[in-house]
Amino acid sequence: MNINQIKYVLTVAQSSSMREAASKLYVSQPALSASIRELEDELGILIFERSNKGITLTEAGHEFISYAKKAVSQYEILEDKYLSKDKEKAAVFLPMEKSM
After folding, report:
1. If you average pLDDT over every residue of the chain, what do you get?
2. What CATH number should be reported for the domain whose range is 3-83?
3. Which end of the chain is more exposed for a tag (fewer CB within 10 A), N or C?
């Protein structure tokens, strides 16, 4: 499981279709479907029920979504704090190499 897969699931859950979610994520629909299917296989749960009428969240999917939202929120806090665009601040904390 990786953060992109979690973000994919959240986007699909908020979209009206896999195609719409793929467009929002700038990935192909087959790649998105494969990534989510891989995550479901890894976790041993079915997140989405798929039919010719579209996709819906399963009961396990609803539970996964509640945890996924929290995980992505925390991940974004970490990104903001430690992967900020101002890399100079981070450099202050790196040890300096000793000259020979």
Report:
1. 88
2. 1.10.10.10
3. C
In this model, does residue 7 exceed pLDDT 80?
Answer: yes
**Res. 86 pLDDT band, cuts 50 70 90:** low
The letter for the amino acid at 76 is: E
Q: Whole-angstrom Cα distance, residue 27 to residue 32?
A: 7
Instruction: Give the pLDDT band (50/70/90) at residue 71.
Output: very high
